[in-house]
Structure formats: C-alpha cells, structure tokens
C-alpha cells in the first residue's frame, strides 16, 4: 500500500509542476505581449503612426489633361483607393494569401495552430494584416530565432491594432499600396503602369492573378525575366486555381484563362526616360527651391521624394507627345544630312577652328565626363585619366534607330556626340502664359543639357521684331511705310561703337525702296540697322526687357541683327506678347500643388504686364504674318524643309520669324496662331560645329519644319482646339497694316521647291 501511495504522490507532484510550468509559461506569454506592446523590445507604432504610416509616397507630376507624366520618388509608390481596385484582384488576393481574411481580427488562430502542429511545412500562418504590419513597420526582420519570435509577437499586436483602426477594405488597399513588385514598381498602381501600362481598375482577371502570384516572391516570379516565363506562368495558374477553390471563378473559366500567354507592355519609369524628361528636371530644380519657401505647418520642409505631393502642371500630354515626335522626326532626317556632309571633312564636325581650339574643346569635354569624375575620385592621376580616353571600350551609344552596342575609344565617342544636332522647343498659350510643351533636347539619357530654360543661344533675326516694335511705337511708323534698302555704314563712335559698321544682306543684294513689311518678311539686315539707328540701341534693349527678356543684352547696334544670346523660354514668352494684344504674360508651368491628402498648398497667380498698346502689337503680328506669306517662312505654305518635302501645308494666318546666327551655328523659328505660340532652336552643342552652307544651316531648314510637323499634329487632334482663325483686329485700328502695291512684286521666295534659293539670313 505504501508503494501505491508514493506513486500517487509522485503523480500529483507531476501535475503540480505541469500546472506551475503552464502558469509560468502563460504568464510569460502575457508579459511578452505586454512588454512588446509597451515598446520594451523596440518602438511600437503610435495611434498617429497607424493613421499615417510612413510609406515613401512618390510625388506625381500631372499634365493639364490629367495624365501623370512623371514622378519624383525614392520608392515609386502612388497610393490607390479600394474603390479603384477591380474586385477580381481583391478576391484573387484573399483566395491566395488569406482565405479567412474576413473572419479573423488580424490573427488566424486556425492557421497559426496548423502551422505550429505541422512545424511550418504547409506554409506560414501570416494573415494579410500581419504581412501589412511587417511591411509597414519592420520589413523582413531578423533571422535569429529569439528576435524572430519577438518580431512575430510585435506583428500580431500591430495586426490587431490595424484591424481596430481600419476597415477590411482599407487594409487591402494599404497592403496593395505597400508591396514591392520590383523593377521600380512599389504598390499595385505603379506595378500596373510599369508592367501593363494600365491603371489597376483596367487589369484583367489573368493579369490580376499574375500580380497576386508575384507576392510570394516578386524577384523569383518577375514576369519581365524571360528565362522564368514558365515558372511565372505556373504561379499565375496556381492563383487561378485558388480562385476556383474559393468560388471566385469557375473551373471552365480557369481552363480558358490558363491558355492565355503572359502579355506585358513593360515601361519602366525612371528620371531619364518617359515623357517631358527635360521639363521634369527643370521642375525638380524649381521644387528644390519651392520646398524651402513653402514649409509644413510644423515648420519642416516637404520631402519631394516621400511626401506624395501632386504637382498639377500646365503641360498638355498630347502637345508634349507631338512636340517630341516632331523633334525626333525632323532631326532624324537632318542628322543624316549632317553626318553625310561631315563624312570627308577634316577636323569634323568642327569648322574653321585651329587644332589648338579643337584640343581645348576636347579637353573640356573629357573633364566634364563621368569617366573623368570617377577616375579622379579613385585617385588616378591626370595623365592616367587622359590616357584611358584612347583605350577602346565596350559601350552603348545613342542613335536615332535606338541604343547600339559598340566598341570605340572614349575620345572617339566624344567626337561622335559632338556631331549631334541639339534642339530646344517650347509651346505656350499667349493669353494664359501656360507652357504646353517643353522639349529641351533630343534624348535626356544621353544629352542632359536643357536648351529651353538653361541654354541661351544667339537668336539671329528672330530678334528683329523687337526692333520693329520699338520703331512703330516710338516713331509712329507703320508696316506700310517705306525705307531704302541700300548700302549703309554706321560711323565709328555713334551709339558707342569702336569701328565703322556696314552690315550686309545675306544674299548680297539691295532692293531699293521697300516697305517695312517686305523688309521683315525677307529679313533685310540693312533696314534693321537703319531702324535701330533711328531709335537707338537702348530703346530696343528696354523694349526687350519689357517683353520679359532677362538675358544680358549688350547696348550695341549689332543687336538689331540678333547678336545676343537668349533662351527659347524667354523668346517665346516675349513674342507671345504681340499675339496677346500687347500684354506680356510670364510663361508659367504650375497650376497648383496639393499635399498627399489633396489639400491645395500653392496656387501661383499669373504675372502680367502691359507692354505696348493693341495697335502696335497687331502691327507687329501683321509684319510677322508677312514672313510666312512671302518671306523666309513661306515654306509653311507648301511644306518645304529645304532638303526634304514634308506634307504640312497651312493656309491659315501664321505670324512667324526665322533666324540664323553667324556661320549657321544657330537656327531659329518662332511661329504663332491666336491661341498658341511655339519656338524652336536647333544647333550643335559647340558653336564651332555646324553646317557649312546656309541652305542647310538656316532656321527655315533646321527649325521651321519642327514647328510645321508639330502644328500639323496639333491641328489633326480636335481635342486641342488650336486656332486657325485670324488674329483679332483691334477696333478703330490707327496703324495701317494692309499695304497696297501698284504693281505685282515678284517675291524671290515664291518659286517652286526644286528651285528654292537661299533666302534666310545671317545674324550678322
């Protein structure tokens, strides 16, 4: 009996120890959860953190027609609301990742028990809410088992808090906004845009299944990796199977969808690719200053890359596209002619410079290169760096047929790129000042200098309307007044010049008595020189400044022929004043800026100024109409390009002006209709590189065709409503603009395209 009693006591002791251990364990678990929730194992998110999770939201750049044309981001994330998600995407997500999502409160007890019993062999038990908690507040976490347990406890606590804080629909939206789909796509909106070029709401069932399938391992199941095509396809079909299992789609529908291949419209988003790249970089530079002047309520600066601002710009996505297409189409053709003309030229692409000057250009280009910067940082000597430029290397180069892999020395690549013609083009509405298109170069990835807002170049004869406007205003002259085109010399000392100045006409001829209208139409240099002599250079400089020109203008008579460097942005803004009845409106590019909650935090007001009266402005417009009717811009009437026949042909009134600087280094054209003005500059990066002949290098050949192609595309798009109407004539116009001639004047530009002479002008 004693033995039996001892055994009973032993059993009771085991029971006591078991319950003691259980109590300690239970208490330990409770304490573990309490300590974790109190932040003993690291900071836990507060109520405000849960309300406003730190999610690195990208700043969006939005066009005037509602298209996202670019982003600023560290993580390319743009949030989407639950209402914008297709239901088959939501159901595929729940069916695959958390079948009991709508039944639990953050932790799936049944799934957790299964995972413990099976030791995780059938997968983990993380709910969607737990995965969201992990993504929001600590990522993948530690692999050390003790730390991993603590992190799992924290996930549970955060998940429960999230379930209390948000609805199930909000949790799904938050989850899909947080997921990294790789290739720069963070969140479902970026993923849909980059992989499919769609909004999430437009995703099909199989596309939704593809994205849900990626969640298991976005890198492994990346559909853009062709070597893993079958693996990705199988994973997508597994998701379709889960959708059948959970009653989302039928077995027959699954079999139908399984047969469909994976189709991508892969468009990676980067700062150097996409639409309006030069404008976006200009905007980024502007926003760096903006954030310092527009602080948050707490006094801190907005983070352009994390705070999810929405910048509503004046850019029209269609006009921007048409401008980029026009630049590409014409310069692709023009570049062929340039390469052909330089083929056998010694020291190509440079013209009339010494070997020492050439070497100076090359030395500067080498020092500005990324190769030089990196080698210098790595401690290489100047001699070692220069020597490396003669060593052949594998590289990708820009061509108009796409990037090309090749082998050449870095020095040869510099010469290759020096051959390329560059451009700056801007279009704006004269009445609002809204910039509608901005093309700062031919390819931002390879040529990052912005020739619209950054680069000032010699404007040539596009400056002449400012001279004529000054004369009409101050001397009350009209376009129909006559002046003698004859040999003219301005003596040394007059207007501060240090030598006699005798400007020549580009064709070497003199026309005798001529109206101002004909003089500007044919860009007669002697007439412009005589006109500035009448009013003085200072008056013309003052007029240009009133018209918004901020570039430095020398107070010299030679500015009458365009011997001054001005940006495309300034020139288009100034010319638009005449189309806007004499009122200058400063070019603008921002409509409003909102924070991530949609609150407007900045809404710029237009800057305007009365410069000349309506009569003077209209007289200048009529003068510029003569340029496109019978002068240097007459090619717009029949589509000529100087070396190629384009199919644009405009019969509506167009006010325009061509310009060509000395030695054909710069070609310009600025053209206007009542509600749109656009200006284009074309030239090489280095002024020493240019066409030899005026026939190829003049603005009517290099720049005007881009305007023509662009406007033809705009006119073909009825949504844009670009005007073909005449410019509005002021009531009781006091200046004579309709010039009657007693006999027909044979215009030297009114000839067949095949017999076209060199009618454009030199700047000097």
UniProtKB/TrEMBL annotation:
List membrane-spanning regions. 21-41
What does the record give as its pathway? Answer: Cell wall biogenesis; peptidoglycan biosynthesis
Glycosyl transferase family domain spans which residues? 66-243
Q: Which UniProt keywords apply?
A: Carboxypeptidase, Cell membrane, Cell shape, Cell wall biogenesis/degradation, Glycosyltransferase, Hydrolase, Membrane, Multifunctional enzyme, Peptidoglycan synthesis, Protease, Transferase, Transmembrane, Transmembrane helix
| Catalytic activity line of the entry | [GlcNAc-(1->4)-Mur2Ac(oyl-L-Ala-gamma-D-Glu-L-Lys-D-Ala-D-Ala)](n)-di-trans,octa-cis-undecaprenyl diphosphate + beta-D-GlcNAc-(1->4)-Mur2Ac(oyl-L-Ala-gamma-D-Glu-L-Lys-D-Ala-D-Ala)-di-trans,octa-cis-undecaprenyl diphosphate = [GlcNAc-(1->4)-Mur2Ac(oyl-L-Ala-gamma-D-Glu-L-Lys-D-Ala-D-Ala)](n+1)-di-trans,octa-cis-undecaprenyl diphosphate + di-trans,octa-cis-undecaprenyl diphosphate + H(+); Preferential cleavage: (Ac)2-L-Lys-D-Ala-|-D-Ala. Also transpeptidation of peptidyl-alanyl moieties that are N-acyl substituents of D-alanine
Query: Which superkingdom is the protein from?
Result: Bacteria
| Protein family according to the UniProt entry | In the C-terminal section; belongs to the transpeptidase family.
Xref: InterPro entries: Beta-lactam/transpept-like, Glyco_trans_51, Glycosyltr_51/Transpeptidase, Lysozyme-like_dom_sf, PBP_transglycosylase, PCN-bd_Tpept
Q: Where in the cell is it found?
A: Cell membrane
Q: What is this protein called?
A: Penicillin-binding protein
Taking every annotated instance into account, which residue ranges of this chain make up the domain Penicillin-binding protein transpeptidase? Answer: 425-675
A Pfam family name for this chain? Transgly
């Amino acid at each position: 009996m004693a033995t039996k009693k001892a055994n009973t006591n032993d059993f009771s002791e085991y029971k006591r120890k078991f319950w003691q251990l259980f109590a300690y364990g239970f208490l330990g678990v409770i304490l573990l959860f309490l300590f974790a929730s109190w932040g003993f194992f690291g900071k836990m998110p507060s109520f405000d953190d849960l309300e406003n999770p730190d999610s690195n939201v990208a700043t969006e750049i939005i066009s005037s027609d509602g298209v996202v044309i670019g982003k600023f981001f560290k993580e390319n994330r743009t949030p989407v609301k639950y209402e914008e998600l297709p239901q088959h995407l939501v159901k595929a997500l729940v069916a695959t990742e958390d079948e009991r999502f709508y039944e639990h409160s953050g932790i799936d007890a049944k799934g957790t028990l299964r995972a413990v019993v099976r030791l995780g062999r059938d997968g983990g038990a993380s709910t969607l809410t737990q995965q969201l908690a992990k993504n929001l507040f600590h990522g993948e976490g530690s692999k050390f088992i003790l730390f991993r347990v603590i992190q799992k406890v924290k996930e549970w606590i955060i998940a429960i808090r999230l379930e209390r804080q948000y609805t199930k629909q909000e949790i799904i939206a938050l989850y899909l906004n947080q997921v990294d789909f790789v290739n720069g796509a963070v969140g479902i909106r970026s993923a849909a845009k980059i992989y499919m070029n769609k909004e999430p709401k437009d995703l099909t069932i199989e596309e939704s299944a593809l994205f849900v399938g990626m969640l298991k391992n976005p890198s492994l199941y990346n559909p853009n990796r062709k070597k893993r095509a079958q693996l990705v396809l199988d994973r997508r079909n597994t998701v379709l199977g889960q959708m059948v299992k959970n009653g989302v789609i039928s077995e027959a529908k699954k079999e139908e969808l399984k047969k469909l291949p994976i189709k991508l419209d892969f468009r990676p988003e980067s700062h150097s690719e996409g639409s309006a790249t030069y404008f976006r970089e200009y905007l980024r530079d502007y926003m760096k200053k903006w954030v310092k002047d527009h602080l948050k309520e707490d006094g801190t600066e907005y983070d352009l890359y994390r705070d999810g601002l929405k910048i509503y710009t004046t850019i029209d996505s269609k006009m921007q596209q048409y401008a980029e297409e026009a630049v590409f189409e014409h310069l692709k053709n023009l570049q062929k002619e340039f390469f052909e003309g330089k083929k056998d030229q010694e020291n190509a692409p440079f013209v009339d410079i010494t070997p020492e000057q050439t070497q100076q250009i090359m030395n500067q280009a080498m020092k500005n290169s990324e190769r030089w910067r990196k080698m210098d940082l790595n401690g290489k000597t100047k001699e070692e760096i220069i020597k490396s430029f003669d060593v052949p290397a594998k590289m990708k180069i820009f061509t108009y047929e796409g990037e090309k892999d090749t082998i050449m020395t870095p020095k040869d690549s510099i010469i290759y790129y020096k051959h390329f013609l560059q451009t700056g083009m801007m279009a704006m509405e004269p009445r609002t000042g809204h910039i509608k298109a901005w093309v700062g170069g031919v390819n931002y990835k390879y040529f990052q200098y912005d020739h619209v807002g950054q680069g000032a170049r010699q404007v040539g004869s596009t400056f002449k309307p400012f001279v004529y406007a000054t004369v009409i205003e101050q001397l009350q002259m009209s376009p129909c007044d006559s002046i003698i085109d004859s040999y003219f010399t301005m003596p040394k000392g007059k207007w501060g010049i240090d030598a006699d100045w005798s400007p020549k006409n580009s064709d070497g001829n003199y026309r005798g008595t001529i109206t101002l209208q004909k003089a500007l139409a044919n860009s007669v240099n002697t007439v412009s020189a005589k006109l500035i002599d009448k009013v003085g250079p200072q008056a013309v400089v003052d007029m240009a400044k009133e018209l918004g020109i901020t570039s430095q203008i020398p107070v010299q008579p030679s500015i009458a022929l365009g011997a001054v460097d001005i940006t495309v942005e300034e020139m288009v803004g100034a010319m638009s004043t005449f189309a806007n009845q004499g009122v200058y409106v400063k070019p603008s590019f921002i409509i409003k800026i909102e924070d991530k909650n949609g609150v407007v935090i900045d809404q710029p007001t237009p800057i305007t100024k009365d410069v000349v009266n309506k009569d003077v402005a209209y007289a200048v417009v009529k003068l510029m109409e003569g340029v496109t009717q019978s002068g240097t811009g007459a090619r717009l009437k029949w589509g000529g390009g100087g070396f190629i026949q384009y199919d644009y042909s405009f019969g509506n009134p167009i006010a325009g002006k061509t310009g060509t600087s000395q030695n054909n280094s710069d070609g310009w054209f600025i053209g206007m209709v009542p509600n749109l003005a656009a200006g284009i500059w074309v030239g090489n990066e280095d002024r020493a590189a240019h066409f030899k002949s005026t026939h190829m290098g003049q603005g009517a050949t290099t720049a005007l065709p881009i305007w023509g192609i662009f406007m033809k595309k705009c006119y073909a798009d009825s949504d844009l409503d670009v005007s073909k109407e005449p410019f509005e004539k002021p009531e009781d116009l006091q200046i004579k603009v309709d010039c009657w001639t007693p006999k027909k004047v044979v215009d030297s530009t009114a000839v067949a395209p095949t017999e076209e002479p060199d009618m454009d002008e030199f700047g000097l």
